[in-house]
Design a protein that fits this description.
single chain; mainly beta
Length: about 170
């Protein structure tokens, strides 16, 4: 299996942001819902989301498959995610684009060709940094240095396009 891994700065040698990558991030579209991932320990292993525990266990949340309504923006190299529960509670997480991008491209040998010729590669872009603020349901859980780990996944050729990144893990 051929794996290409690049850990690189999102800035050129002059310290300026790579305009192409930032432009691609502006073009990415998120789903309008997000799921709350929990381990078998449930809320016992989570800190800062006690406001959601009763809602999560209620019938209204169960009817929505444990999903939040989600709206997001990416402006001035900052992501802002607005979440709303089925019972109407809401909160916003804000975090800046990290200066580092970990990038993976893998030929998984499934025989699928890409539109540009060559194999259809599995791709990941990984960002890690500090959450700058949390409001509403997240307010009590954002204690510096709260970190985020954001992963975009998809398939395509070696050239990156917004349309290639169709998933973010949940």
């Amino acid at each position: 299996m051929r794996v290409l891994f690049r850990a690189r700065s999102l800035h050129d040698l002059d310290g300026k942001t790579d305009v192409n990558n930032v432009e691609l991030l502006h073009e990415l579209k998120f789903d309008q819902t997000a799921a709350l991932y929990m381990t078998a320990g449930g809320f016992n292993n989570m800190k800062g989301l006690s406001d959601l525990e009763k809602d999560f266990e209620s019938e209204s949340w169960a009817a929505s498959s444990g999903e939040f309504d989600l709206a997001n923006t990416f402006v001035a190299k900052t992501w802002q995610f607005n979440f709303k529960t089925p019972t109407g509670k809401s909160g916003t997480l804000t975090f800046p684009m990290s200066a580092q991008l970990a990038q993976f491209k893998v030929d998984i040998h499934d025989g699928r060709p890409s539109g540009g010729g060559g194999p259809l590669l599995y791709k990941e872009w990984r960002f890690k940094g500090n959450v700058t603020s949390g409001t509403g349901i997240f307010k009590s859980s954002i204690i510096p240095p709260t970190t985020y780990f954001l992963v975009f996944q998809g398939r395509g050729n070696d050239c990156d396009n917004a349309e290639d990144f169709t998933h973010w893990p949940h």
